[in-house]
Sequence to fold (486 residues):
Amino acid sequence: MKTMKMLAIPAAILALAGCATSPSQEELRANAIAMMKVSFKESGQAKLDRIDQDDMQRLCSQFVGDKVMPKEVSEKLEKAQQALIKYPADGKMVGDWKQGERIAQSGVGKQFTDDPKTPAGGNCYACHQLTQAELSYGTIGPSLYHFAKLRGYGEQIQRYAWGKVYNSQAFSACSSMPRFGHSQILTEEQIRHVVALLMSPDSPVNK
Amino acid sequence: MDLRRKALRKQWGRAARTAVAMAALAATGALAQQKSAIEEIEKYRAALGDGNPAELWEARGDAIWKEKRGPKKASLEQCDLGLGPGVVRGAYTVLPRYFADTGKVEDLESRLVSCMVMLQGFTPEQAKKDPFGGPGKKVPMDALVAFITSESRGLPMKVAGTHPKEVEAYDLGKQIFYHRGGPYDFSCATCHGVNNQRIRLQDLPNLENPRDAKKAYTSWPAYRVSQGEVRSFQWRLYDCFRQQRFPELEFASPASVALTMYLAKNANGGIFDAPAIKR
Fold:
């Protein structure tokens, strides 16, 4: 049984991470997950499967504190996440920055106290500076003020902004930022508006 | 009592005026310097620190501790919180710890549940039924927590964490702290693993950093001005997980106790200074 489990772990990670995946560590992780499963109860839209982890969540929970993720592992993770990004079929990536600003202000969404029928926000200001007018911004992420003014307004940057909002893990493994498109927090339409907030020359982000 | 209430009201008046000043400042929008906004918020926080309505919870908790309740019509005065039956002074600084009578590691809240069951004859379901107060609902648990923690004010945290079950709880708590999950991919460490970060304007303690870990843990429970309630450490974890987009953390559950063990032991040496007052 143990051998089977070991075989299932990608060889590269096994070889590089050594003690991080030693049986005792694996056992501890399994016990912690089992403990969480009996300590939470489903509530509203938040079901118990939210405790389960995908590959990205599992890997990024392991390489923490002093344990640095090997470059090979992070590159592999970013590649796998890049493959999950869906770009808009019609190629239109820039919507209305005013709606984008409202989405950036709203922290509603996916909590067990939230009505699942209410559209989620992006809560961008919780972590990022965006405009000069909004003083109440967080510092978990970098400042995005002058996002396109600094990087350019071209299609390549639009595509980067879309991808970053859709799946941040594709560009920076174990980023703190939610995968707004991949995890179906924001709709394609909403992402278009957020991208406009970053990319539109009229947006206060670029003023 | 009257004098204290008057003094409190005076302080609230001052806090409210500062809040109005803050709002006016916010209204000037882009003209306002961000630095002065932060200074105003600091002033607001300082004004709040002068008086603490948590004292009302503490007094109520003292009375509930001595009150004969439950099917056995007994008080909690013989409850062993870790330093022997009936010893309240300093008890919070050694929790969570292993208790031989239940065979479990317990934090303050889960220990109170055990005592309500063993001494007063409540069922575990009855003892855990109303863990947190809300609008128009004052619950015994919040008051007991406020009273007992207030009896550790000024004392250093000294969680042992040496019994094999305590070691196990600590290690599991650490795993839970770093567990990324849910639709937002958040773990506790997402917000509490880096120095000097804020969410909006709220400073976030880095709980991996001993200085922040001590300062944060020793400031709970706290009277939350925005909610008008004293909030226990169990509530703090419950509401963190809600914002983490996890399911609902069950009161006094094994994961809640393990995580508390991890955070409390990391705060060892910190001087306990709660119930505190927060925004």
